[in-house]
Amino acid sequence: MKKKMSGSVKWFVGFLCIMAMLTFISRQIYTSKLAIVTTGKMKNQAIAHNIRAAGTVECDSLKPVFFPQGVLADKICVHQGDSVNPGDVLAVLNEKSLKKRIQTLEEEIETKLQTDGASAGDDAVPIFTESGMRIIKTAVKNGQKVKKGDLLFQVDTDHLLRLINSLEADRNKDIISRNGLINAMNAPQPTDEFGSPIGGSSGSQEQIDSLTISINEQQKKIDRYLEIYYNNGEIRTSAEGTVTSLSGKVGDVTGDSSALAVISSSGKVSSTVSAARDEIKELKAILEAGGNIISEETGVVSSVTVTAGSFAAENNAALFIADTTGDGLYFSAMIEEKQAKYLAIGDKVTVALRNGRLFTDEAEIRSITNSGENFRVDVVIDNAMFGLSEDKSISYGEVGELKTSSKTSDKYYCISKEAVHGSGAEKYVYVAEETEGFFGPEYHAVKHSITTADENDTYFGMTSAGIPDEAMIIMSSSKNLTDGARIRLNDSGLMENDSAEA
Which residues contact 459 (CB under 8 A, 6 or more apart)? Predict the structure, then answer.
């Protein structure tokens, strides 16, 4: 005969059942409040660096063409991008304006001879140049005699290149903005059920025209500096005589209006009179040619600074001709310093022109120049690379884009950037570590500091991880994490990272 369980034992067993149930419910409630995390593993592989930069087609040789000062241009016969040969008419000057300028110069000569005579020292000719350049050499002294073309000063070409690169960077930003507006205007617009356009273009022709004017003005200034740069920074005299004043010194930065030197003729006729007579001779030759300015060069017009009905500015070239008869064309773009270390002279890159309609993967880097904050990359290009014939050749001044992808030679322990917290030298990740709890396996978020050696847009790379290869790195969490906090893995559990090389 079985003994019946006493009442106290029944109560005790019931208490234990209730406590077990409450514990289970409490655990379920607690677990449901834990952060749900997704994890992934590190990858030991190279990191790919994608480089994209806007740029322009440049030329090694730019030859300026000057119009006579103070003479009206009736017609400009060429435009940027036009091909020219010796004998081609570049512009037509107003004959009345030519005659008036000749008359003015003759009157000035007469007045100069009557008032100052022809003695030396009365014919000061100031020598000006572009502003912002640092002088590194003075080749003359006060009292020294010079001839036309003699070296007066030399400026720091590295400093000048930084100035040019800064101007080019500003120009390229405007080019990118303008191209974006053009693409926005040319993009197909959505229509409603009746075929009427919905919305409008994000750009306007007025904005594009304004940016084009700004780009052209910047290019003109760049061309003037490039002329000096390609002459090795040398500033030469356009007058013959004796140096009577020398204000430019080594270390000085050229200003907007101050003369670097003053030169006067040592002969009986002042250089002012002599220069005026030379100018009259040139003006009369143009007048005899019907006012035509004739090209002496073969090449492509890179820029035109004078318009019909206007006057050429003093000491400014009216236009520039790019000498494209040789292998002088190249593509130039500016990249950031952190990108430059992944490129080398001789590397093949992609150059795309005409909004991507023309491109080549065979363009070779010929130079990488440090310009301070940025680096200038020059790439060799020619018509054959783009499959173009001579009548459809690439032109000086065309805008385009440089693209390339370079993988690191070393392999790294790669972690997705979404898993990394902190910044600078204080970066860290959380790793899901498993422990055995009372009710089975439990997971905790454990903080690990990391030191990165490289990165791209997606990954951080480390030479030494300090984390086990199979560690479950927390990629995302439903809640903010703290070191040691309990966590719950999502239903998918462990996820594999994408390849760092992709």
Answer: 47, 414, 415, 416, 417, 500
